[in-house]
């Protein structure tokens, strides 16, 4: 699973679910907003940074006409 778009979709869903739970709990203090920011944003950032990406094509691959490996 090296599709980068999948990582962004998972991250967006995580933020949406976290925000929905935050609103359902009806937390309104400043500390709750800090917790929301940490819980909603830190895991997606880690996911996107650690998600495996396909290796770029090398000059040798281009010269010999090899397709990009996924």
3D architecture notes:
- 69% of the residues lie in helices and 0% in strands.
- By secondary structure, the chain is mainly α.
- Helix 1 packs antiparallel against helix 2.
- The longest helix has 22 residues.
- The protein is rod-shaped.
- The model has no long low-confidence stretch (mean pLDDT 84).
Order of SSEs: HHH
Compute the CA-based radius of gyration.
19 Å
Low-confidence stretches: none
Q: Number of DSSP strands?
A: 0
Strand content: under 5%
The end-to-end span amounts to: 9 Å
What's the topology here?
Blueprint: H1 4-25, H2 30-50, H3 59-63
Helix pairs in contact: 1-2
Can you give keywords for this protein?
70 residues; mainly alpha; 0% strand; rod-shaped
In short:
The protein is mainly alpha-helical. 69% of the residues lie in helices and 0% in strands.
């Amino acid at each position: 699973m090296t599709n980068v778009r999948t990582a962004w979709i998972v991250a967006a869903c995580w933020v949406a679910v976290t925000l929905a739970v935050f609103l359902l709990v009806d937390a309104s203090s400043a500390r709750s907003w800090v917790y929301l920011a940490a819980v909603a944003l830190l895991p997606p950032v880690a996911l996107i940074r650690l998600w495996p990406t396909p290796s770029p094509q090398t000059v040798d691959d281009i010269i010999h006409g090899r397709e990009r490996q996924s």
